[in-house]
Fold GTPase Era.
Amino acid sequence: MANEFKSGFVTFIGRPNVGKSTLMNRLIGQKIAITSSKPQTTRNRIQTVYTDERGQIIFLDTPGINKAKNKLGNYMLQVAERTLNEVDVVLWLVEPSTFIGGGEKYIIEQLSKIKTPIILVINKIDTVEEKDILEAIDTYKDVCEFAEIIPVSALKGKNTDDVIDSIYKYLDEGPMYFDEDTITDQPERQICAELIREKALRLLSQEIPHGIAVVIDAMKVRRHGHIVDIDATIVCERDSHKGIIIGKQGSMLKKIGTQARIEMENLLDMKVNLQLWVKVKKDWRDSDMLLKNYGYDK
Ligand code: GDP
Ligand code: K
Ligand code: MG
C-alpha cells in the first residue's frame, strides 16, 4: 500500500523571545514560495502551512497563555486552553537552561491539563555546549509527559528537520486542507505591505517609523510575462517626515523600494515592478476610519 497522506494541526507555545517565530519561519521556509493564498474561515487562528510528500502540517498561533489579569485575559486563556486540546501536537519551546522560571511553571500547569502529545523543543543550542544541552534535557524531561524532546537551533537550522519528522509520528491520515503551494493564510498584499514597512523601519531613524502605515494600492500580474506591477503608498504623519522618507533626490525611497522588491520577488517568485509613493495623513493613528482603511481594524 502506498503511504497514506497525513495532516494535522500544531501549535507553538513558549515564553516571548524563545524563538517561536524563528522556528516557524525555518520550518516552512525551506520548502515553497507563495504563489497563491486564500483566506479561510478560521483565518485568525491559522498562521502557516507546511506541505511535503508525506502530508500537510498546519501551524496555529496560540494566544499567549500568561496569567489572566482581566476579562479579556480570561477569555484569551480559554481560547488558548481549547487550542491546546484541539490540536494534534503541541510544540513547547524552551531555552537550554537548568532553571525553570515562573513563566515555564505556568505553562507546565496548563500542559498538565491536556492530553495532546507534547514535543519539547530545546532551542538555541548554538549558544551553549553539549553538556549544557544534556543538563537542560535532564532538567525538563520529567516536568511533563513528553512525546519527544528535540534540541535544535532554529536560527542555524540545526535539527529542525527532526521536528517535522517527529510531528508526523503523531499525525493521522487526513486531507490536504490547502493547496500545496500555500504557506500562509495572510493575503499576499498584506505581506508585501509588511515587507515595505519592515524596510522602512530598518532604514529610517527611530521616530518616524511608528507613524507610518503602508497600503498596497494595486497589485496586478501582467497578462504576458512573469511580472507583477505593485503600487504602494507609505503614509506618514508630517510633511517633514515625508521629506525624510523620500530622501535626497529620492534616494531613501529608492533604497526602501529596492530592498522590499527583492524580497517580494522571492516571495511571489516573479519579477516585481514596484512603484512607491509617500502621502501625509495627519493623525491617521487616531482615526478609526483611517486605521480600518490601512488594515488595522482588529
Ligand atoms: P518568539 O518571541 O518566541 O517568537 O521569538 P523570536 O523567534 O522572535 O526570537 C527571539 C530572538 O531569539 C531573535 O533575536 C532570534 O534571532 C533569536 N533566536 C531564535 N532562535 C534562535 C536560535 O536557535 N539561536 C540563537 N542564538 N538565537 C535564536
Ligand atoms: K520576539
Ligand atoms: Mg514571535
Residues 30-46 have pLDDT under 50 and may be disordered.
